[in-house]
């Protein structure tokens, strides 16, 4: 049975689809898009140039993505669970929300947004835990045509304020608090701190979840529950979905780059919908009624695309888990899979590695036989973790999809298709239809041979290409489209084997990947430099057994703010305050100088070698202003 007309069901069909997508992208994506609900058809499937850049898919078309995620499923899936929610505390009850219920809740909350002054095009910031109300708020924004910007709960007040200011967001939706393992994060209180510097925020809607005490500011803050009650009193009227142009923005998601300031990646309604749905259905080979469990947080792109929009637009059942893999014990994922008979598990290598460390005890006596497909995302997966996942979780008979993509790409660009195209440990393998990867050498020449490494670029747009960086289009151009003319540059390096399979080797810019979280070294340096005792700092990554990469900071300390162990703690607290706990350095080495060239540039290559422990192999230091500083740094290595 073919459940989705555009679901690829053989290796041959994959090659056919890929070839067609390259020879005739408009024909190919026009056909896929014809299976969605549009209020008005498009005039042109694709128009683009990467010089500006300008990428327009389905121009002239009108739609609302929530009609595709909700309304169109009411006919045949009204009583099927859309969302299964598993709370942080396993003793508490889970929730099942059917498509009919989710529709009703989104409609209701759309009214709440409208009643509170939210209009089409307004930016609404969401800072909530992993609860169904976050998905409801996301969808309600989309229904009223507001641009949502979800901020991960691990970011600090300062980071939130930066993002609110950049997006000029007038509205915030938050919770009193969020549970994460044994922790209780006071979200509303963090928001209050952020808002000290954001007077333009006119309304904060607060959902009660943890029953943490909060201060509600008169005239600015309202309770979610009160606002919903008003809609109920009004008889729960329908809320016709706002008409959106295919190229109207759907959301902004901030992500780190090689500069100090995070970028607001903008995705638009039509192309993003088509591509996240297409990749969801094809990569995981989703079958009707299956339960899809993506363990990411909705605060990251993975949650946007493969917890919310991809699965819901495909009428799938998506499982939302509030907690963390190790609470109350390291068997949590396996309990959830057993409890709900999960069919697809999509998680990050860092989670797999952290669970491996607990041995097989937590996996034993858990029925994982419902699993059909396993997925990984966010960072390169080492062979050891891949094998462990394959043997102990998949029991050797679940294909593993290694999905490579980015916040900017909106959906998966390189991955095997579960059970359809071949897999290879630590390889993302082949491009999705519509995706044309290529490798370039340092000089910008394309490398056409196989068994080579190069900088990974993409030749032409796919439907969920980022359209701009919010408020600064030139930044989008210089960051992604200017390094190599007429190509999208990913910032990743990749190896291509004799079969043309791609293995992502990691970032080639100054961006770290810590536990699958993207962190710019410049951002961490800026935060460290805020500390009064810090003269200068340089941050690099180093291999970390569980996190993938750890953060190693070399800091020149003035000596005026207490002893060394104290200052290390203070620097850590500073980073936590400025960015958030996710960016805390794992190691801080106090140094008297940094290796600099005569022109004053820090030679990070040397610092990276030290952080990696490659002390014998430091490389050429003759161009340094003061080669002596290297010896001191080597001696002081942590
Ligand atoms: C960076 C993007 C895409 C959702 C999560 C991260 C790295 C992502 C893989 C993979 C090797 C990967 C890349 C990429 N990455 N997936 N399967 N294998 N590396 O999104 O925060 O935008 O980070 O994550 O380095 O550039 P993101």
Percentage beta strand: 15-25%
How are the strands ordered across the major sheet? 5-4-17-16-18-19-20
Mean pLDDT: 96
> What is the CATH topology assignment of the largest domain?
Rossmann fold
**Helicity, as a percent range:** 25-40%
According to CATH, the homologous superfamily of the largest domain is: ANL, N-terminal domain
Radius of gyration: 24 Å
Q: Mind describing the biggest β-sheet?
A: 7 strands, mixed
Uncertain parts: none
Description:
Helix 5 (99-115) crosses helix 6 (132-144). The protein is 31% helix and 24% strand. The mean pLDDT is 96. The protein has 638 residues and is α/β, with parallel strands linked by helices. It folds into two domains: 11-409, Rossmann fold (3-Layer(aba) Sandwich), CATH 3.40.50.12780; 515-635, 2-Layer Sandwich (GMP Synthetase, Chain A, domain 3), CATH 3.30.300. A seven-stranded mixed sheet has the order 5-4-17-16-18-19-20, sandwiched between helices. It has a five-stranded parallel sheet with strand order 7-6-8-11-12, with helices on both faces. The chain has a five-stranded antiparallel sheet with strand order 22-21-23-25-26. The protein binds 5'-O-[(S)-butoxy(hydroxy)phosphoryl]adenosine. 5'-O-[(S)-butoxy(hydroxy)phosphoryl]adenosine binds next to helix 11, strand 20, strand 25 and strand 26.
């Amino acid at each position: 049975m073919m459940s989705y007309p555009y679901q690829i069901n053989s290796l041959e069909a994959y090659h056919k689809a890929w070839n067609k997508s390259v020879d005739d992208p408009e024909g190919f994506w026009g056909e896929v898009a014809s299976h969605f609900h549009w209020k008005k058809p498009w005039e042109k499937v694709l128009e683009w140039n990467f010089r500006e850049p300008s990428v327009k898919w389905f121009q002239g078309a009108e739609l609302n993505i929530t009609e595709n995620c909700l309304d169109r499923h009411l006919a045949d899936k009204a009583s099927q669970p859309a969302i299964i929610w598993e709370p942080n505390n396993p003793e508490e009850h889970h929730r099942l929300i059917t498509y009919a219920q989710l529709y009703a809740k989104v409609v209701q909350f759309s009214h709440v947004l409208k009643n509170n002054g939210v209009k089409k095009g307004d930016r609404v910031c969401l800072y909530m835990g992993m609860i169904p109300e976050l998905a409801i708020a996301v969808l309600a924004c989309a229904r009223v045509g507001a641009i949502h910007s979800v901020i991960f709960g691990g970011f600090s007040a300062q980071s939130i304020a930066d993002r609110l200011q950049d997006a000029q967001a007038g509205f915030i939706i938050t919770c009193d608090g969020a549970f994460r393992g044994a922790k209780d994060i006071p979200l509303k209180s963090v928001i209050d701190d952020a808002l000290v510097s954001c007077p333009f925020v006119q309304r904060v809607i607060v959902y009660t979840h943890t029953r943490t005490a909060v201060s509600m500011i008169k005239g600015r803050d309202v309770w979610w529950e009160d606002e919903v009650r008003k809609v109920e009193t009004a008889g729960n009227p329908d809320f016709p979905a706002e008409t959106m142009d295919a190229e109207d923005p759907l959301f902004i998601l901030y992500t780190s780059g090689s500069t100090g300031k995070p970028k607001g990646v903008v995705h638009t309604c039509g192309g993003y919908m088509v591509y996240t749905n297409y990749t969801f259905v094809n990569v995981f080979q989703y079958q009707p009624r299956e339960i899809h469990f993506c363990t990411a947080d909705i605060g990251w792109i993975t949650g946007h695309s493969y917890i919310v929009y991809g699965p819901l637009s495909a009428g799938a059942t998506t499982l939302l888990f509030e907690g963390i893999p190790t609470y109350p014990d390291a068997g949590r994922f396996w309990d959830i899979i057993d409890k709900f008979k999960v069919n697809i598990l999509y998680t990050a290598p860092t989670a797999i590695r952290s669970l491996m460390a607990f041995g097989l005890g937590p996996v034993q006596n858990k029925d994982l036989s419902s699993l059909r497909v396993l997925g990984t995302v966010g960072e390169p997966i080492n062979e050891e973790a891949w094998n462990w996942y394959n043997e102990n979780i998949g029991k050797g008979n679940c294909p593993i999809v290694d999905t490579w993509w980015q916040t900017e790409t909106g959906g998966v660009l390189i991955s095997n298709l579960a059970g359809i195209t071949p897999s290879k440990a630590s390889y993302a393998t082949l491009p999705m239809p519509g995706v044309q990867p290529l490798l370039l050498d340092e000089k910008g020449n394309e490398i056409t041979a196989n068994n080579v490494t190069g900088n990974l670029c993409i030749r032409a747009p796919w439907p969920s290409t980022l359209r701009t960086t919010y408020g600064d289009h030139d930044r989008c151009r210089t960051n992604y489209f200017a390094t190599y003319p007429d190509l999208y540059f990913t910032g990743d390096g990749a190896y291509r084997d004799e079969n043309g399979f791609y293995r992502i080797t990691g970032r080639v810019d100054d961006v770290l990947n810590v536990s699958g979280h993207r962190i710019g070294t410049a951002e961490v340096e800026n935060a460290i430099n805020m500390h009064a005792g810090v003269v200068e700092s340089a941050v690099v990554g180093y291999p970390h057994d569980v996190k993938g990469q750890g953060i190693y900071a070399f800091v020149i300390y003035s000596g005026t703010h207490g002893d060394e162990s104290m200052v290390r703690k203070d620097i850590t607290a500073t980073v936590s305050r400025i960015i958030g706990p996710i960016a805390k350095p794992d190691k801080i080495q106090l140094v008297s100088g940094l290796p600099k060239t005569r022109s004053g540039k820090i030679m990070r290559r040397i610092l990276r070698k030290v952080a990696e422990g490659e002390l014998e192999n430091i490389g050429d230091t003759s161009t340094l202003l003061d080669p002596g500083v290297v010896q001191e740094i080597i001696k002081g290595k942590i």
